[in-house]
Amino acid sequence: MAKIELDYKEIEQNLGFLTSIYSKYSPSPEDYERIKRSCAKKLFSKSQNLATYGMFYPYEEMTKFFKYYGKEVSENEPYDNEYFFDENGRLLLTRHFFADKSVLSFTLYFYYDSYVDAVWYDTKYGYNMIARYEKKNGVLTRYIEGDCVKDGTVFGYNEYVFPPEKGEKISYSSFAKGVGFDGRDYISKSTFVVLCDGAR
């Protein structure tokens, strides 16, 4: 992976973009209950390791780049992820569980014509995430996820810009405020080639 400089103008643009997305959503417990009651289908999976989003994404193309280590299971088997779908097969809500079946976090998905927003809420540590999946002419073009605290302050992100064809380079950039050596900001920008599915 070839390392490239990432300038702070781009960083501020991405942080502002993610902050504006996060400010749009403030789901309540009633929203989660409504989604659970109205869903047309539920699925379950068991992970081999901690997975932020689980087995399913709003766009299936994401599974080419983000490999899930686990398997789909029945409700009667041990599981740590629960997925709720609407009548059109769209993923609306994912719940993630601790081993004792208490809820670790949940992810809500909001669908628009050319993109999907996802808000990931942590129930224990107050650590949230925001993400956007973007398409152009029906093709996945970008995925960006931001780390934020409960007041909506975004302090870091990962961004992937996808090529139109497999074998071409993916652009990846990452920023995290104050987590590097001696409290410095962590900044990275690279390109890499996906040769097969499940690159991450």
Which keywords apply here?
single chain, 200 residues, mainly beta, twelve-stranded antiparallel beta sheet, 12 strands, globular, disordered C terminus
Explain briefly what this protein structure is.
The protein is mostly beta strands and 200 residues long.
Note the topology.
Elements: E1 2-3, H1 8-22, H2 29-38, E2 41-47, E3 70-73, E4 81-85, E5 91-97, E6 103-111, E7 115-122, E8 127-136, E9 139-149, E10 154-161, E11 169-176, E12 186-193
Antiparallel strand pairs: 1-12, 2-3, 2-4, 4-5, 5-6, 6-7, 7-8, 8-9, 9-10, 10-11, 11-12
Characterize the structure shown:
The chain has 2 helices and 12 strands; from the N terminus they run E-H-H-E-E-E-E-E-E-E-E-E-E-E. Strands 1-12-11-10-9-8-7-6-5-4-2-3 form a 12-stranded antiparallel sheet. It has helices at 8-22, 29-38, and strands at residues 2-3, 41-47, 70-73, 81-85, 91-97, 103-111, 115-122, 127-136, 139-149, 154-161, 169-176, 186-193. It has one domain. The model is unreliable at 195-200 (pLDDT under 50). A hairpin with a 2-residue loop joins strand 8 and strand 9. The protein is mainly beta.
